[in-house]
Amino acid sequence: MKLSSLILILTTISFVSTDVPKITTPVNSINRPVIHLTPPYGWMNDPNGLWYDEKDSLWHVYYQFNPNATHWNLPLYWGHATSPDGLNWNHTGVAVAPYDKKSGAYSGSCVVDDENTSGFFSGATELDQSKRVIAIWTFNHHNSWAESQYISYSIDGGVSFKDYRMNPVASINSTQYRDPQVIKYVNGNDKWWVMSVAKSHQYRIQFYKSNNLKNWKRTSYFELYGLLGYQYECPNLAKIRYEGETGDWKTQADKNGGYLWVLFISINPGSLQGGSSTEYFIGTFDGLAFTPIKNYAAPIDYGKDFYALQVFFNSPKDGDNSQVHAIAWTSNWQYCATVPTDNWRSSMSLIRKLQLTDFESAPGTKIAFIKSTPLINNENLRFGSTASFDSTTTKLDYFHPKHTIDFSDSLNGVIKFTLTWTVTNGQWTKSNPANFYLDFKGYALPDEYLRIGYQAEAGAFFVDRGNTNVEWVHTNRFFTDKISVNVQPNSDGSYSVNGIIDRNIIELYFGEGFQVLTNTFFMTGGNFIGSVDVSLDMIAYDFDKNQYCEPFTLKLEAQQILDANNS
Amino acid sequence: MKLSSLILILTTISFVSTDVPKITTPVNSINRPVIHLTPPYGWMNDPNGLWYDEKDSLWHVYYQFNPNATHWNLPLYWGHATSPDGLNWNHTGVAVAPYDKKSGAYSGSCVVDDENTSGFFSGATELDQSKRVIAIWTFNHHNSWAESQYISYSIDGGVSFKDYRMNPVASINSTQYRDPQVIKYVNGNDKWWVMSVAKSHQYRIQFYKSNNLKNWKRTSYFELYGLLGYQYECPNLAKIRYEGETGDWKTQADKNGGYLWVLFISINPGSLQGGSSTEYFIGTFDGLAFTPIKNYAAPIDYGKDFYALQVFFNSPKDGDNSQVHAIAWTSNWQYCATVPTDNWRSSMSLIRKLQLTDFESAPGTKIAFIKSTPLINNENLRFGSTASFDSTTTKLDYFHPKHTIDFSDSLNGVIKFTLTWTVTNGQWTKSNPANFYLDFKGYALPDEYLRIGYQAEAGAFFVDRGNTNVEWVHTNRFFTDKISVNVQPNSDGSYSVNGIIDRNIIELYFGEGFQVLTNTFFMTGGNFIGSVDVSLDMIAYDFDKNQYCEPFTLKLEAQQILDANNS
């Protein structure tokens, strides 16, 4: 977090509580996402301290939390929530607080110090070693705004933290030195802690090494790569199995037990979508320095609401393999302070499993790329009504370009859907127009709708979030209406997208998940989606055959989600 | 150009002429830009073959031209226009034609072979050696769609071209091998031609060397850098004086006579703005290989309509210094085929002078960056009415948040303006709200307006092109309404932007020109801008002083442009 994101206060002042708030029950709200994590009230930004409790199979998510207002302001805490499945979220209150009520406990990470390298857990004999949690975070002191790295430890499994008495553990007298992420580097019998910290305005990620989390030695840096924008934030380094077979990535993975390393960097402001976004680089890491294999900057998400991605420390094991999971903040600093939600603002993405493999990003060209899969298990969901469409049985043509599907008997504003379509030879042709759109329409006010669709001649899938009566959407200067991504076909030539709509978030995972498009949208509160119009966007006339063209193949399967009832 | 940009034909077929069209007079059109180059009729995309005639002080611009329809289709020609000033454009007809009416003369470049290395000019004894123009372009053969590099020479100073009989000069049996740009590399007494060609789907720029433009030897390649999107197109390599004083850029420039090299690459589709954009890399070039100094990908323009940038071969000299000038296509493949203009489509940007120097992109951090200055000399313009605003004399406050300036007595839809504003300490504070917007309103239909403005808390300047009655703007899937750029202050802490509005293009040059935002916009035909509303966007209340905040400082100077009458 940074100063230039200060909020314009119009006619009210927020009074700052001097107590750490204890309230843990979310206030109900008609526009609150159901399966996405939101703050119980107040303000949320970056995810922090993500870790997975292997013993209890529990996901821990902390986040930048201002309990005193629905916009960013100091003091800033680490809020905390846990989930058994990434869909049900239990709020456990504030976990980390700043020393000073005019300052902030800024972003950072958690590790499990299972071997008690820090010594903090010597007295906590009853604590399982899988729960020896240490938070590493940035304290900014309001006197100088200097940012230093602090550590705190928890002897109750991550609910509350005690600060290390000799903090800070890293300090360089800079106002632009933040967002520490710590991982455990293991190479045979050698292991040590590695910390990545952003020297934001220098576009530099500084790496450190430690044996005890207290004493850090500077090792290397990575700077001036990819898109820069105004600054780098939230570096995250992740070791990840390379599942591909291509070129230098394969060569390097073979040398490193099948693994490569990914460095995620968030930039804000100054992303090309406008405002905030996250990019990543693929390379090797020897415990001291990160070396990219190629030099491309890959977007982890093409939407306007996916920032400050952070990777979980630990993940459920998949056989012998370590998995990698991540979460990001689904908003944008350009407009986050004023989005039209009531007693809370901002949410997190679903937890995403990240894998690294070969992506055919252009015909014949395979490059290593992250694919994302949302952690969403149907067994944890309670479903309502369903809607489906199949163009092979329900014809769309020039005379009948639209088909309406009602699924209003379990209105909840939460929908899971899969859309598949084909384009001849992976290419638009005159006799096979593939342009279509879907309008997810409000039930009470059907003139409000979220439109998504594909246009083959642009090679792109779009979201149009501008069709709403919510005035803020139109008057806000940065809430872009149309957002798109160039999408590639599946290996069989078809296209597909898995979508999750959750009140005011839409996450779209294309194909195998190499491309994801995450955006917020806002319709009148309570105007939950009650129907879908499936429409041909344009009908081509085939002059060779002297007839209107055959429609493309399009299938939709959608289900309303009532809640994530995993009991 | 590529196949996936094929156009959906609704109810008409375009009949392809088998003759090269001779018409050179543009058809008048109410929505045609006045000082930006547009095709006389039909379709334009990439700029091609840019060169500057030093003897006659004339800018030559060629462009991808389909005279038979207002969308991309084959055959595709090189249209040609010249200008003494970059503002007045004279159309001279088709310069390069494909061999085959089902194929295309695709993008490429021109060089001046002043020393007749090619031998083409041995018989042209009356032709000044400064006019020995050779075009290097991609021919795509409709049988295989294979792309090869062809050369053609002109003995009439670039108006018409004859094809080399032994074409192609470079061929690798690929459909993704195009957009050759040739420069003359000079190092002391050594000199040779260097060609850059995109192997598009491989994200590779291939470099070649030749002594005669006919025989090319492959030397090196540059691949997988920066943003990739779907493919690389239109590589452009430029030698440019480094005017900065910083780090490795200075060290390398000192070793190379004060010069560095910039490699421009256009990506489409798949840019993060959606669709098409151009990025660049800064490095060194030894005549054989390009080596980046750092690894950031810099955007040359942050707008949605600036693609396929090409650098002029030769430029007016500035003392002993070579200058670098460039032009780009101001549209986007996502929607270019359907923009609401009548008998023509697309335009070029103004010619921009490019310089390389230090940009303080974040406080305290200087990086080498291109700054752009539009080639627009007031002496070449005939001005109409003016409009000005000064917040120090015309107060805006809570009770009077808006001021309207009429300048409707010379309606023409072409406006040149400068906007300067200040924000305390380069930072928004509660007592100095700097948020404002300007509505450039149509005279006949004042409910149509182009809105631009700044919000300090987002650190961003925005264009909102969505306030129009033109239905296409709202129904097109990719014509994003709000586009923004994070802008940095000038060295004195103030902010400024120089703007050019030309019927349906707005180019915004921030500060010294390190950041440019170019976008098209569309209002009802003939609804030229007749007034400007200057508005405070939000008024803050200063609780310390118990009063509404003082307005920021804002100055506007605007002039209507009647035409570029340089006679």
Describe the model.
2 copies of one chain form a homodimer. With 567 residues, chain A is mainly beta. Chain A folds into 2 domains: 42-235 and 307-350, Glycosyl hydrolase domain, family 43 (Tachylectin-2, Chain A, 5 Propeller), CATH 2.115.10; 378-563, Exo-inulinase, domain 1 (Jelly Rolls), CATH 2.60.120. Chain A is 2% helix and 46% strand. Chain A is built from 2 helices and 39 strands. In chain A, the strands form 8 sheets. In chain A, strands 26-39-28-33-34-35 form a 6-stranded antiparallel beta sheet, with no helix packed on it. The longest helix of chain A is centred in the middle third of the chain and has 9 residues, at 247-255. Chain A starts with 41 loop residues before the first strand and ends with a strand. The model of chain A is unreliable at 1-18 (pLDDT under 50). At the A-B interface, strand 14, strand 19, strand 20, strand 31 and strand 32 of A face strand 14, strand 19, strand 20, strand 31 and strand 32 of B. Strand 19 of chain A pairs parallel with strand 14 of chain B, so a sheet runs across the interface.
